[in-house]
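=== RUN LOG ===
request id: a7f3
mode: sequence -> structure
chains: 1
length: 118
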Amino acid sequence: MHAKKAARMRRSKKVRAQMRNLQAHRLCINRTPRHIYAQVISPDGDQTIVSASTTEADISRETGSGGNISAAAVVGRAIAERAKSKGVTSVAFDRSGFKYHGRIKALADAARENGLEF
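=== RESULT ===
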């Protein structure tokens, strides 16, 4: 494993351990250069409640490219709407060790604007 990825995984492990103590739903983010993925995971960690990503047909039609800030905002809006429809309004934000800027920040802001609390 590369040093950069190992450091990111170390950071994510620490944050996830704290979230386990909160017993809250977790909004987990993963990003690649081409796409961004988001999913809401149950407090015990064994079930994915809802998910959204730029690989889905309806989202990719709306965004065009999946590796930019506007696409991340669309995914954030979609994940918030889907979570609210399942009755989840409050989550813990798991950025998976990624810095909170750019696409990660855009996704979080869009999810907040559309009703998710974290």
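=== NOTES ===
The chain has four helices and four strands.
Residues 3-22 form the longest helix (20 residues).
=== END ===
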